[in-house]
Specification:
Layout (H helix, E strand, L loop, with lengths): L1 H16 L10 H13 L6 H14 L4 H17 L3 H21 L7 E4 L5 E4 L1 H22 L5 H4 L13 H13 L1
Antiparallel strand pairs: 1-2
Helix pairs in contact: 2-4, 3-4, 4-5, 4-6, 5-6, 6-8
Length: 184
């Protein structure tokens, strides 16, 4: 009997260990937007839960363009609030991944995410421009600052990418990045 119970326990553990990854919930964008609002209201100042939520979204919702833009937005806030250079470089890398996923999953037919503000009103959220703003206004400047301080994020390392981080349909983000580099 003990052998049967042990085998059953092992089988249960094995099935749990190989379970499918969590699927992206319907309210993912709202969860992320709620965190953005709590930061804006000054209710959330601890970077750890913000980064954890953004990391969850990048891992769990790779095909959800607005979720990725919101994750990048959260990471942009975390980057500014993180004194540790190594952690900041990790957040820059993760935000770059979120922006790349935002780009590859973007489609003009998707339309906005309809999100609720804390006062109950709705907002039509178009994340593509927000993700581009995070790239230009947060990632690139903080990446340069990190590189100048001796901790170069992948974004500026010169390490080759397997493929372009931006989708073939959207030369505009690449052009925005290049234009920003010329100004900077």
């Amino acid at each position: 009997m003990r052998l049967v119970l042990a085998a059953f326990s092992l089988l249960t553990f094995s099935l749990t260990a190989h379970a499918e990854p969590e699927s992206c919930p319907e309210d993912a964008e709202q969860r992320l937007y709620n965190m953005v609002q709590s930061i804006e209201r000054g209710e959330q100042s601890d970077a750890a839960p913000v980064a954890a939520l953004a990391e969850w979204a990048v891992a769990t919702c790779p095909a959800r363009t607005h979720a990725q833009a919101l994750a990048a937005t959260l990471l942009g806030a975390v980057i500014q609030a993180t004194p540790d250079k190594q952690k900041r470089a990790q957040y820059v890398d993760l935000a770059e991944r979120a922006i790349s996923l935002n780009d590859s999953s973007w489609n003009p037919r998707i339309g906005p995410a309809i999100l609720k503000r804390s006062d109950g009103t709705s907002v039509d959220y178009f994340g593509y421009n927000q993700a581009t703003a995070v790239l230009i206004e947060r990632l690139l400047p903080h990446g340069v600052g990190l590189a100048e301080a001796g901790t170069t994020p992948r974004l500026l390392s010169g390490e080759p990418y397997a493929s372009c981080p931006y989708a073939a349909h959207s030369a505009s983000r690449l052009a925005d990045e290049a234009h920003s580099a010329r100004r900077g």
